[in-house]
Amino acid sequence: MAAISRRVFVQKRNLISLPRDIREKLNISEGDVLDIRMDDNKIIIEPMKLVPSDQAYFWSDRVQKDMLEAKNDVESGNVREFSAIREFLDGIEQ
């Protein structure tokens, strides 16, 4: 993504407003959580999307790696089709 630069002013109570084009590009809405950190002499603000705890496993490195592998298999045609559950189960046991 190309760098976007905007000037904003610090308002009363040290508030800043994120420019509309940046909010829209990053899909940031009221109530969203932002991570703010300092790196050397820079302020970095990054949107965070919270994941419900019962779905956190999906975002683990292992599951994401497995999902990417499955996606690549499907795209390359490395798949098998089964016409019955028994045929599927027999295929797993091989």
Dominant shape = elongated
List the strand order in the largest sheet.
1-2
**What count of helical segments does DSSP give?**
3
Structural class category: alpha+beta
Report the helical percentage. 25-40%
The H/E string reads HEEHH
Q: What is the radius of gyration computed over CA atoms, rounded to a whole number of angstroms?
A: 22 Å
Share of residues in strands = 5-15%
Mean pLDDT: 91
End-to-end separation: 46 Å
Largest sheet: 2 strands, antiparallel
Total domain units: 2
- Number of DSSP strands? 2
Q: How would the blueprint of this fold be written?
A:
Blueprint: H1 20-25, E1 33-39, E2 42-48, H2 61-76, H3 85-93
Antiparallel strand pairs: 1-2
Descriptive report:
The protein is α+β, with helices and mostly antiparallel strands and 94 residues long. The chain has two domains: 14-48, Pemi-like Protein 1, Chain: D, CATH 2.10.260; 53-93, no CATH class. It contains three helices and two strands; from the N terminus they run αββαα. The protein has helices spanning 20-25, 61-76, 85-93; strands at 33-39, 42-48. A two-stranded antiparallel ribbon has the order 1-2. A hairpin with a 2-residue loop joins β1 and β2. The longest helix is centred in the last third of the chain and has 16 residues, at 61-76. The model has no long low-confidence stretch (mean pLDDT 91).
